[in-house]
């Protein structure tokens, strides 16, 4: 191999090859966009718009680095070449280092997932409830069925109801059915809020249907989440109907994000329902039997391909621009203070009161609970 002197310009890259690469990548991006469930709901015209935009973006991503490389290799300055080499060598260890590893999650008890273990262990202590509300309290009950508790939605729901019955959950005034996210996580702020507002006189039950991030589950379809919620509500309602005549616990339903989509489908079978952060891309209105809460700056609640061509949410709107602004806000939707973005925190207190999930408490109690949740 013959080395070229640093001062001599190198041959120009083949433009047809670069152009062909960009076109192929752009076409692949367009096809992928058309296939994404996020874009399947709107009409064909909107799908084509999104496909073209993605194709152009990928084409640009391929073209810009090539132009930069082409410019650099044509430079004649030995000093600049040397500087670039030193910079690359210095940056290599930093790129390889990455970010520190997150602390390992504590091991879950046998048969219970990590999400389930955190859920069950997080019940609010009666002393803490009394400290916040000023009223006597009892120990809240929590039951959780993980993926390993059954091979079907019905089996896992039955296991959760059995745990609920064994722990005395059906002696409480309220049964809270929580629809988790794709990883099995249930927002602890929501469950703790009901525990505060009921003085601990509540049993909360949840069933895991997957162990992947919500966005992965959403891309593959909301069917598993909806079927799991339906199975659990059916099992809890059957257990309530089998109780002796007389006062029975109220069935309250809660779902957040992907869990809100799951809970929305069975809201008519609950005595009260609260949906938080219902994804805008779900393209479905909240059921009339449910109360919804949505932060004005929650990108999850407003993101939708419809934003490309029409306003759909608060604030000013510009074609295409607003869509990408909201899209860019999605990754950091949880990295904000409670009450903003995709975090609801203390806002759950008023939400559950408005939904009729708990007896109407004094306004001061609602405020105190909200502050305790936001901590």
UniProtKB/TrEMBL annotation:
Keyword Membrane included in the entry's annotation: yes
InterPro entries assigned to the protein according to its UniProt record, in alphabetical order: AB_hydrolase_fold (IPR029058), Alpha/beta-hydrolase_catalytic (IPR027787)
Domain Alpha/beta-hydrolase catalytic: 141-268, 293-354
Transmembrane segments: 20-40, 46-73
Presence of keyword rRNA processing: no
Any Pfam family hit: Abhydrolase_9
Keywords for this protein: Membrane, Transmembrane, Transmembrane helix
UniProt protein name: Uncharacterized conserved protein UCP007542
Organism: Pseudonocardia dioxanivorans (strain ATCC 55486 / DSM 44775 / JCM 13855 / CB1190)
């Amino acid at each position: 191999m013959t080395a070229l002197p640093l001062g001599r310009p190198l041959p120009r890259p083949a433009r047809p090859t670069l152009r062909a690469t960009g076109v192929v990548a752009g076409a692949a991006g367009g096809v992928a966009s058309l296939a994404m469930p996020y874009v399947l709901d709107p009409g064909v015209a909107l799908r084509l718009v999104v496909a073209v935009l993605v194709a152009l973006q990928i084409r640009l991503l391929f073209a810009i680095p090539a132009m930069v490389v082409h410019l650099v290799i044509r430079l004649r300055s030995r000093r600049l070449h040397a500087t670039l080499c030193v910079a690359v060598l210095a940056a290599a260890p930093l790129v390889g280092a990455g970010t520190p590893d997150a602390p390992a999650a504590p091991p879950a008890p046998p048969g219970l997932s990590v999400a389930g273990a955190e859920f069950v262990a997080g019940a609010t202590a009666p002393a803490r409830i009394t400290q916040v509300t000023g009223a006597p309290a009892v120990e809240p009950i929590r039951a959780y069925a993980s993926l390993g508790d059954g091979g079907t939605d019905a089996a896992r729901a039955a296991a959760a109801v059995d745990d609920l019955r064994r722990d005395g959950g059906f002696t409480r005034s309220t049964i809270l059915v929580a629809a988790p996210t794709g990883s099995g996580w249930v927002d602890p702020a929501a469950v703790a809020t009901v525990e505060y507002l009921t003085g601990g006189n509540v049993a909360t039950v949840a069933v895991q249907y997957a162990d992947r991030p919500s966005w992965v589950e959403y891309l593959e379809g909301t069917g598993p989440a909806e079927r799991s919620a339906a199975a659990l509500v059916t099992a809890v309602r059957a257990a309530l109907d089998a109780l002796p005549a007389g006062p029975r616990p109220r069935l309250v339903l809660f779902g957040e994000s992907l869990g809100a989509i799951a809970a929305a489908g069975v809201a008519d079978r609950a005595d009260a329902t609260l949906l938080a952060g219902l994804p805008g891309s779900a393209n479905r209105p909240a059921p009339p039997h449910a109360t919804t809460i949505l932060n004005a700056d929650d990108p999850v609640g407003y993101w939708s391909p419809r934003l490309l061509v029409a306003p759909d949410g608060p604030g000013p709107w510009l074609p295409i621009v607003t869509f990408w602004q909201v899209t860019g806000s999605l990754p950091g939707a949880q990295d904000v203070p409670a009450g903003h973005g995709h975090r609801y925190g203390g806002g759950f207190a008023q939400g559950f009161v408005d939904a009729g999930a708990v007896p109407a408490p004094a306004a001061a109690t609602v405020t105190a609970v909200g502050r305790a949740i936001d901590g």
